[in-house]
Each structure stands twice: as structure tokens, then as C-alpha cells.
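agent> Task received from the user: take the single chain below, predict its 3D structure, and emit C-alpha cells. No templates, no multimer pairing.
agent> Plan: (1) validate residues, (2) run structure prediction, (3) serialize to C-alpha cells, (4) report one or two observations.
agent> Step 1 OK, no nonstandard residues flagged.
tool_call: predict_structure(input=
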Amino acid sequence: MVAKDLVFDLQLAASYPSSKSEQELLVLAQQYADACSRTNERIFECVKLLRVGMRSEAIRLAELEPNILDELSSLNFGERGAWLALAEQLGVPTPDPAFEMAREISDAYDQHEETKGLACQLRLQNIYRRPKEERLQTLEKLLQVDPNNPAWLRNYSLLEDSVG
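)
tool_result: status=success, residues=164
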């Protein structure tokens, strides 16, 4: 179940717990905990890709349906505090959504926009086997915009070693 489909029931249950049976509340609590876990797993996978310099792949994974940032936003609904207290009373542990890690994904979108043109240029230079010096210049520009990207650093080092 997509988080936003679940949120209406959660909001109602958090505001009016007596509107649901204990069994229904347990089911909702487990569904919310599962949604948080699934979302966190995808966030962790995206961040793992980001940290090895695979930004495009991380963004592609984040944008699969349901979009991971939209899903996380849905899980952070207004009555979340009341819902978590209720879930705790029911004995259903709920993992905290990985908000801090999601910020890395959000930042990656910004960096992706800045580097998209240069990355495309570098791919074409590699495909057409342009001179190494030309590719090094493009990598230098990429490193100015995105200095901590391990992929750019690794490619620059390899290319520089083969030139010098």
C-alpha cells in the first residue's frame, strides 16, 4: 500500500482511536511500520549509491513509483506523534523515517541539475574517443561543481595517469 493511501486511516485513528477496533488499529500500525521500513530501505539504497558516486542511479531509484521523497513526506503526516504514541500502546514498534538521509537525496537532485550537461558531454567525449586532455578538462569542470564525487575523482585520476 502506498503511504498516502494509508495516511487518511492513520489520521482518523490517531484523532479518534475509538473509531477503530483494536484489531484494525493493529493492522494499521503494522502497515505503517512496514511502509516506514520499505521507505527507509529504499532511502538507504539511494544513499549508498550516492556515496559511491552513482548519483544518476540513485535518483533513478528514488523516482521509481512511489517516488521516495513523496512517500517519505506522506509518512510524516501531521498527526504522526499521536499515531506513534498509539502504535506504542499497541506494542507495534515503528522505525523512524530516515529524514536526514533523505536530505542527501534531495541535495543530489540539485547537484544532478548542475552536472547533467557536463556529464552528458563527458559521456559523448568517451564514446567518440575524444583526446584525453579534452576529457580531463570536462572532468575538472565537473570536479569544480561536485568536488566530492568519487566517480569524477576516480575517472580524473585514471585519465590523468594515462596522459602523464
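agent> Step 4: summary for the user.
Residues 7 and 77 are 7 Å apart (CA to CA).
agent> Done.
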